[in-house]
């Protein structure tokens, strides 16, 4: 068990470009969450997967954002036509079906210039 | 949107002293959790307290929950320099539709000086 991993750890992109982040949860964790954290704030929920099904999306998740978890294992979060306001830390967390405690990855820090 | 707020926003103490952080939230909850975030690192789960519990201990940590006041406190006893971090409370709403997603406060930044 190597914990939740995220790739890349840092991403700098120009406004208008598309970016994709990957999250590998702890194996056999059915539930996977994406959060966004800006400086000085707590994380804010973006979306939730149970296995491959995306069951909940926050209003924060505009139509420029899309997330997938095609085989119920790793997940990707894509942001199209990035804006400066998208600059943040993107966190992924996983938990087993019967658990409440969430295990977080180190995050991907996105900077949009 | 943020569920609640931690108080104080920042706390500076000497090693060996106790640190108390408070959290208030707005809606009915299933459970409340505390997480720690070190500079540049991910969030680490510390302790969970369910809505029908009033107090819980784990090592040097003590958490209380008052659902009538919608508030919780985290006490760290005999603090160490390594406890320097931001501490967040996070709630799981009890609204029937919740999928377990956490709603975080803004955090308390704790600094423990050696």
Write the layout of secondary structure elements.
The complex is a heterodimer of chains A (113) and B (114).
Chain A: E1 5-7, E2 10-13, E3 19-24, E4 31-37, E5 44-50, E6 53-57, E7 65-68, E8 75-79, E9 88-95, E10 103-104, E11 108-112
Chain B: E1 5-7, E2 10-14, E3 19-24, E4 29-37, E5 43-50, E6 55-58, E7 61-66, E8 71-76, E9 85-93, E10 103-104, E11 108-113
Structure description:
- Chain A has 113 residues and is mostly beta strands.
- Chain A has no helices and 11 strands.
- In chain A, strands 2, 4, 5, 6, 9, 10 and 11 form a 7-stranded mixed β-sheet that branches.
- Chain A is globular.
- In chain A, 35% of the residues are buried.
- Chain B has strands at residues 5-7, 10-14, 19-24, 29-37, 43-50, 55-58, 61-66, 71-76, 85-93, 103-104, 108-113.
- In chain B, strands 2, 4, 5, 9, 10 and 11 form a 6-stranded mixed β-sheet that branches. In chain B, strands 1-3-8-7-6 form a 5-stranded antiparallel β-sheet, with no helix packed on it.
- In chain B, strand 7 (61-66) and strand 8 (71-76) form a beta hairpin.
- The chains are: A mainly beta (113), B mainly beta (114).
- The A-B interface holds A 4, 31, 33, 35, 40-45, 48, 50, 55-56, 91, 93, 95, 100-107 and B 1-2, 31, 33, 35, 41-45, 48, 88, 90, 92, 99-107.
């Amino acid at each position: 068990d190597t914990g939740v991993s995220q790739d890349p750890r840092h991403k700098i992109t120009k406004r208008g470009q598309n970016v994709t982040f990957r999250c590998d949860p702890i194996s056999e964790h059915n539930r996977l969450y994406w959060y966004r954290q800006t400086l000085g704030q707590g994380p804010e929920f973006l979306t939730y997967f149970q296995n491959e099904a995306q069951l909940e999306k926050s209003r924060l998740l505009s139509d420029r954002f899309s997330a997938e978890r095609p085989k119920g294992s790793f997940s990707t979060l894509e942001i199209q036509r990035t804006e400066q306001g998208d600059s943040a830390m993107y966190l992924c967390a996983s938990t087993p079906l019967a658990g409440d405690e969430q295990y977080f990855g180190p995050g991907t820090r996105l900077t949009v210039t | 949107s943020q569920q609640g707020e931690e108080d104080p926003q920042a706390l500076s103490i000497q090693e060996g002293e106790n640190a108390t952080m408070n959290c208030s939230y707005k809606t009915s909850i299933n459970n409340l959790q505390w997480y720690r975030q070190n500079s540049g690192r991910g969030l680490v789960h510390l302790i969970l307290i369910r809505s029908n519990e009033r107090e819980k201990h784990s090592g040097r940590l003590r958490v209380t929950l008052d659902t009538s006041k919608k508030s919780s406190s985290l006490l760290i006893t005999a603090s160490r320099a390594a406890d320097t971090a931001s501490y967040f409370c996070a709630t799981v709403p009890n609204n029937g539709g919740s999928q377990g997603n956490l709603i975080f406060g803004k955090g308390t930044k704790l600094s423990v000086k050696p």
